[in-house]
Automatic annotation (TrEMBL):
This is tRNA-uridine aminocarboxypropyltransferase. Keywords: S-adenosyl-L-methionine, Transferase, tRNA processing. Its EC number is 2.5.1.25. Pfam families: DTW. Residues 1-188 form the DTW domain. It comes from Alteromonas stellipolaris.
Amino acid sequence: MRAKCKQCNYPINTCICDAVSLVIIPIKIIVIQHVKESANAKNTARLIKLCANDVEIITTDSISEMELLASRCSVQSKALLYPSERSIALESQREHIASALQTLLVIDGSWKQAYAVLQQFPWLSSIPSFHFEHAPSTQYRIRHTRIREGLSTLEATAYSLNTLYNIDTQPFIKLQEAMQDNWRGPKSHQRET
């Protein structure tokens, strides 16, 4: 087993601690991580937790934590970042959302996994949800996908924070870049540019 850095939890030879900058955010971020994504070395949810002050990651196999989350999500100050038929463009309601929001839920996984999370936990569909109208292009190049406009979980979270609260996204993007620069995985997982 490879030795891991005690701070970032990456292998010592791919440590990204030098790229970590703490960002103070005004809301809580809860990442609901598909159980298969939690074992993925390329997942960006753990980068969000390294970079921001109030982030919690719950994996879908932790039923008790998901049940507790369901009981906490009955109030209107929560929102889900997920494009659905009922979702509203985040940019169009920016001021209203920013003033009312206390917790943003973000699903971490592939599109297929995100859909499976919604099927497994149907109560998530009762929470107000938001999508992007004008999201930036992704800079996440080490995943294997055909969806060109798809953002990493980190990028989607950073864009949400920037849109709602004008928070600088560079600490997030810099950390994602450091992780990608240190990536030792197969070339087949590189996004074509």
